[in-house]
Design goal:
The complex is a heterodimer of chains A (85) and B (845).
Chain A: H1 2-8, H2 10-23, E1 26-29, E2 43-47, E3 56-62, E4 64-69, E5 72-77, E6 79-84
Parallel strand pairs in A: 2-6
Antiparallel strand pairs in A: 1-4, 3-6, 4-5
Chain B: E1 2-4, E2 7-11, E3 15-22, E4 25-28, E5 39-40, E6 43-45, E7 49-52, H1 54-57, E8 67-68, E9 81-83, E10 88-90, H2 92-104, E11 115-120, H3 126-138, E12 143-148, H4 149-159, E13 169-176, E14 181-189, E15 192-201, H5 206-226, H6 231-236, H7 243-259, E16 265-274, E17 277-286, H8 287-311, E18 319-325, H9 332-342, E19 346-347, H10 355-365, E20 368-370, H11 374-391, E21 398-403, E22 407-408, E23 412-421, E24 427-432, E25 441-443, E26 447-453, E27 459-467, E28 479-485, E29 498-505, E30 510-517, E31 525-532, E32 544-552, E33 562-570, E34 583-590, E35 595-602, E36 607-614, H12 622-645, H13 649-663, H14 666-671, H15 680-697, H16 700-724, H17 729-741, H18 743-749, H19 752-771, H20 774-785, H21 795-810, H22 814-827
Parallel strand pairs in B: 2-11, 11-12, 13-18, 18-19, 22-28
Antiparallel strand pairs in B: 1-20, 2-3, 3-4, 3-5, 6-7, 6-8, 7-25, 9-10, 13-14, 14-15, 16-17, 21-23, 23-26, 24-25, 24-27, 27-28, 29-30, 29-32, 31-34, 32-33, 34-35, 35-36
Helix pairs in contact in B: 2-3, 4-10, 5-7, 5-8, 8-9, 12-13, 12-15, 13-15, 16-17, 16-19, 17-19, 21-22
The chains are: A alpha+beta (85), B alpha+beta (845).
Amino acid sequence: MKEKGIAIDFDRNFKRLHNIFEEEGYLVQDPTGETYSETRTDYEASISGSIGSKLKISRTIKPIIYQQKEGKVLLLQKGVVLVEN
Amino acid sequence: MMKPVNFGIDLGTTNSLIAKYDGNKVVVFKNPVGQKETLASVVAYRPERILVGDKAREYLTKDPVNVFGNFKRKMGTDERYYVVNIDDNITPVQLSELVLKELKNFIYTGETPEACVITIPASFDTMQSNATLKAGQAAGFKEIFLLQEPIAASLAFFNQFPEDLQKDGYWLVYDLGGGTFDAALVQATDQELKIVDHEGNNFLGGADFDFAIIEKIIVPEIILRTGIEDFEEEFRVKHGKYEKLYYEILYYAEEAKKELSYSKSVFVEFSAELNNKRYEFSIPITREKTDEIFLPLINETVRLVKNVLENNRLSSKDINQLVLVGGSTYVPQVREQLALQTGIPLNFSSDPTTSIVAGAAWYAANKYYESSGQNEIISAEAIASEILSTVDFIEPELHIETSYSKSSRDKEEVLLLFCEGAYENKFFRIIRADGGFDSGFVGLKAKKTEFLPLLPSVTNHFTLSVYDNRYEEIKSLSREISITQGKYTIGGQPLPYDISLEIDDVENKTTKLDAIFERNSVLPQKRTIYREISKTISKGSKDAIIINILEGDKSARPSSNLTIGCIEISGKDLKTDLIKGSDIEIQLHITDSRVLETSIFLVMTQQEFKNVFSISEKQINLERLREQYNLLENELIQTIRQFQYNENDVWEIKANALLEDLQSVKERLFKLKSNDKSDEKYVIAEKIMRVSQASDKLGGNERIAMLVEEYFEAKERVMETINTCDFEKQEMLKKFQKIEQSENSFIRSKNVSFIANKLKQLDDLHWDALCNTTSFLISRYIMWRELPAESYKDYPAARSLMKMADASLEKEKYPEFRRQVFSLTHLMVTIKDNINQAFKGTGIG
């Protein structure tokens, strides 16, 4: 029964965890679906397929995490993404 | 003037680093982009820009005609790389030059080193060494000293070692990096190190371990599960159908390898669509299995180590220790096999990533060069040009104008650059301060656009730098660019005031504001906040929690804000009792047209309450209004007393007038019934708000300045007392630091009640600190002991406590004495503030 309760509330609880991180100044970004940019240094990309045509981020293995601290923003974790065309 | 070199550079095949010897330690500089110590030794010539480092590496396998890595191996050859995108040939020396210049950007101290030490592999020949020298000179170093990598590793190793260690004799440096392996025999004599012999394999490193995991474990498992027989073949095909999966698995294999350094087994989990069917994989990988598949690779390194020994007619016993360097020496099997097969004691006290560059910096500390003294002159020039550049960004021959929007609601903002004069063969580069964006070197044109990605809801700081054709920065042309995202834009509607939630400040028996949306946030806004219930509400009771949403200054007291929404949840609405400490989830949504939607969820009772307010309609809770009245009246009385004490007549008269104004509604407020239909309560609420705002403005900036001064004086006093207190010092310090941390925000708020509140917190802390100081306790105690009997609630009990305290004092048992004095204070008759005694608050903490 107890497990069931957790399952029902999973969405709510998960959002809450996400919220706690945001309150602490963490900004978590999932760039999936965005157009790949060679100037974005906040993710490390593995490019599959050939380059040239428009490249899109097809999968995020690790999200990008920024931290806001004393008015400054810091890149805490680079994202790890897969890029395809 | 001779100066020590101090700067060391590890110009590696895959990664490069820069460090400086500083006094008695070595500092490894970090990349301002991404804060990593390492810089990928890769250069990419993209259609419009030149990228150096990690970002360039992403293109390495994809665009080999324009992206170059591993060029260190080609140093000293006549090899030329033809770059399609610039239609020109470049040499390995030019590529190394770019990497070296990029490393110079890591130096945050503002120094421009004229000399440096650059490390080279022990196997480099004269041509290769000279090529490295050339690259260094091209990068702007006047004097360059080359140092062999195994010596650098040994230096780093020996320099961090205790003096009494026996250093003389032979040592073996085992350097297993990401892509290469080096084994060097080092002879140490009287403070001097010499590489006696060297063996290496330029195609053996950590990457090969990852490939082994894929090839020997993951791929067979995939074939077993899916039955796709030609999977392995297809998997290896360049640009094949499994290419995406290949990169994903490569990442997981590397992670698994790292994790297996400290755990016995890991699972590699991923899902993939193969032949139109979705598979979920969870492949177990044990240390046992990897030990087996890594063995052939490790045996190759052992063979090379043994070669070195044999060639020099040495046995394992002649070697002091085998010093491990390079990231791949973290693999446990490497360590086990080396110990087993060589019999030489292992030493892995060096940091595998930084030991080479650290060694270079140690070496640099003892190398001297003739300083041109230009550094000083340059810096003076730089200052002058900096002053100039703030006035106008004009270089004699080049003028750059920028145009961009200072605020934006978009995810990126376009920057326009207009150049006049000699912009040809010059480059610009833009870096975002947090390291998430780097434009690379982009050629200047008469008109140029660059898209700058923005992080949401913050001010994004960028630096625009300009470089000449040698990639040397033209400092006078650099400038800062700041773009604020989301907070303000002409198109969007900004919020004119802070919107806050009123919550209880139980400690001070009052309420305070908790900002939800800040002023100038662009509408619409949505946020969910989580708070705790601060009092138990039983089912069916009249007691209630009040969700009061206010508009105004977030740092002011709640009564000076305007209530724009109020939800009351009383015991009658509850399904079960609501226990203190249980959670409340408050979701607020404010639309473009400033309609406030609230949704409250009580986690304990699983009940949801929804309400929509439009701001034109005021919601007021009468009971809460009365409490606000009391708090404000009390505060005004205190303020008047304070002004009297300070003999500030003018302010006192004004404060008295305010108090009178406030008290004029007192009678009506307390007679009012909750079902009153008139708009009386709104009139009273308005009055309270006005008085409250006026009370904050009393004395204007002068009073704020006084309070701030008082605050700093109090701070000094408190710090002094805490330093001398005898008990609970750490806890006091923590509280002190907490106040200090918020210092900037409350001083900037320029809000009297906010600053006064902090001042009060400091005073309370001061009192706490005094009560934890033995000498103060003694003096107080002596005073209290002489008080007449009527000062105590229970005098006989007090007398017996005093006897005990006297005894403790005589025996110098201060902790006991402190407890007894505290107990005594509880027996004293005190005149309490009655006003706040029955504090009910909002029920939200």
